[in-house]
Design goal:
By secondary structure, this protein is of the alpha+beta class. The protein contains 22 helices and eight strands. The protein starts with a strand and ends with a helix.
């Protein structure tokens, strides 16, 4: 694992970053305009002292002006997923759809017992683990060499493989992440604790106003679900057959149209209802025309007034295709306690070749066998998580407002989207359109909704066929 701060750490850079934060801290309570305050904040030590005092009082919005970018290599998707879960973090990750990962390397944990002490058979277990991981990576390579694209071959990759990431975030989000990794429930996972410590080492040097707060932080609740678990037995895990619309804003189309009127005319809801009714009497196509205008506005704030909550079955391999969209309220089950790893998917390209399907299923079954052997020896679940495979299925729950739903679906319904997320997206569009038919006309790939494609040379050509049909 390697983490480096990209820029912002030279003496002049560091002083400028601290000056920005100190200026934000002084601005609201000191005389003068922003430029005068900025000029006044010219003493590094005084600036640092001021920042520590202000954030020590709990006023942490000022450190959102300090933005940091990290280069991260040789971490697993365990780290990747926890980073992506922080909604205000920006990230770019090496694509498993485009890059052959057979030489990416993998993480080898120190195997511990249930009390998180080093297992007496640690070295023996590591040797067996390494051999098994090489087998899984070789299976991945065999799939690729036999014509299965890397996009589908990756479903057999274990969650131990190494990932590479560019991560950008402000200092407030950085503080939150490091505290979570050092003191939260996930800190029992050795890799996450190591990641948190490496970030903290960088903080001590280059984000010095956070050191004391993080050092003195108390341990977070290790099991926030303890009360829930005390009252209910854990059921057998059942993966949904397809996405399910759990709840939604009643009469979503009506709410969107009415909110547009209230927004523009600054009127009450009752007045908006009257205007809506009179407009419909004057033009029978008012609903369609008005919604079409809203769907194609630049801000589309009216769409944010309605919400849709879905349960979505998805594989680990594709989870990032959903989590990377920040502006929705996503509930992804934590890696612990471990899920039922017998819930898995086989890509259609592999199913189409019986000999490769047999190879794929054998890899899954062998992985389960080795996993169970390690489990029987009392290995901590925190170290068993690297036996997760990309093909493992899980249920997630998310709530999206209408604008976010439109944004997600315009990309994920595209023919260029990965097949599983595309199927999910089309089902979300279908179910949302059933309860909001006017909004539904704006849900889907842009070639379907706007008769335009933004993929340039990589366009699949569907938009041309749609336009040709439309113009007949």
């Amino acid at each position: 694992m390697k983490i480096e701060l990209i820029g912002g750490y030279e003496k002049n850079d560091l002083e400028t970053r601290i000056q920005k934060v100190a200026t934000a801290g002084k601005l609201s309570r000191f005389p003068g305009n922003v430029f005068e305050v900025l000029e006044n904040c010219n003493d590094y030590e005084k600036n640092l002292k001021l920042i520590k005092r202000i954030i020590g009082m709990g006023h942490k919005s000022i450190i959102e002006h300090d933005y940091l970018v990290f280069a991260i290599s040789d971490v697993t998707p365990i780290i990747e997923q926890t980073i992506i879960g922080n909604r205000l973090t920006s990230f770019t990750i090496k694509s498993r759809r485009e890059v052959d990962f057979r030489t990416a390397g993998f993480y080898v944990p120190e195997f511990r017992d249930k009390s998180l002490k080093l297992h007496p058979k640690n070295e023996e277990l590591k040797e067996k683990y390494v051999k098994h991981m090489k087998y899984l990576f070789n299976t991945y390579g065999d799939l690729v060499d036999n014509g299965i694209n890397v996009e589908d071959s990756r479903f057999v990759l274990p969650y131990s493989f190494h990932s590479n990431i560019i991560m950008g975030l402000n200092a407030r989000e950085l503080e939150k992440i490091v505290i979570s990794y050092l003191y939260g429930p996930l800190s029992k996972i050795s890799e996450i604790k190591e990641f948190g410590n490496k970030l903290f080492d960088i903080i001590k040097q280059y984000v010095p106003y956070l050191e004391e707060i993080i050092s003195n932080h108390e341990e977070l609740d290790k099991n926030p679900f303890e009360y829930m678990e005390s009252l209910a037995d854990r059921p057998d895990i059942k993966i949904a057959d397809k996405p399910v619309l759990l709840s939604y804003t009643p009469n979503p189309d009506e709410v969107i149209l009415k909110s547009g009127i209230m927004y523009h005319f600054q009127c009450t809801e009752k007045q908006a209802e009257d205007i809506l009714e009179k407009s419909r009497q004057k033009d029978s196509e008012y609903n369609n025309k008005s919604m079409d205008i809203i769907l194609h506005k630049e801000d589309r704030r009216e769409l944010e007034q309605v919400n849709f909550t879905f349960q979505i079955p998805i594989s680990l391999s594709i989870l990032t295709h959903l989590t990377r969209h920040r502006m929705h309220s996503l509930l992804v089950p934590e890696f612990l306690p471990m899920w039922d790893m017998n819930n898995f998917v086989v890509p259609a390209t592999i199913k189409a070749k019986p000999e490769l399907e047999k190879l794929y299923i054998a890899a899954h079954d062998t992985n389960m066998k080795v996993f169970e052997e390690f489990k029987e020896l009392g290995i901590a679940e925190e170290d068993l998580i690297y036996f997760y495979l990309g093909c493992q299925m899980l249920n997630v729950v998310t709530t999206m407002n209408g604008r976010t739903l439109q944004w997600v679906l315009r990309m994920r319904c595209c023919n260029k989207a990965q097949w599983q997320i595309r199927a999910i997206a089309k089902e979300l569009a279908k179910q949302a359109a059933e309860v909001a038919p006017l909004l539904g006309k704006g849900l889907g790939s842009t070639c379907m909704t706007d008769y335009v494609c933004y993929e340039g040379k990589e366009c699949c050509g569907l938009v041309d066929k749609i336009l040709e049909q439309k113009n007949k």
